[in-house]
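Dear Dr. H.,

I hope your travels went smoothly. While you were away I took the liberty of generating a structure for the chain from your last submission, since the lab meeting agenda had it listed for discussion. I wanted you to have the full record in hand beforehand rather than looking at slides cold. The sequence, exactly as received, is reproduced here:
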Amino acid sequence: MTREPFNPTSLKSLAGSILLGPGLFLLCGHLAWIVAEWSSWLSQGSEDGLGILSSVIWASSIREQQLVPLVVHILWPVVLVAVGGVLLRAEAE
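The corresponding predicted structure, in token form, is as follows:
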């Protein structure tokens, strides 16, 4: 029996799929969380009369030192999706 030579493109395809699948799953979960938070903030104020105002006050109280880790925590699955997409696209060419 003759063994087939090692093909690095199949490894790229596997790595791309491994990164892309969980990345999309996590990204959709993060986006669902963001939508749920925004809808609760906006609907919460209709009873109090402070809906958007309380959200603006909360957003303005965030400093840059707090904002960077928050954005990184929310958007890091984008990196997984981007790297997985690049690996899959490179394999397809």
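Two observations you may find useful: Helices lie at 8-48, 51-60, 64-92. The first helix runs from residue 8 to 48.

With kind regards,
E. W.
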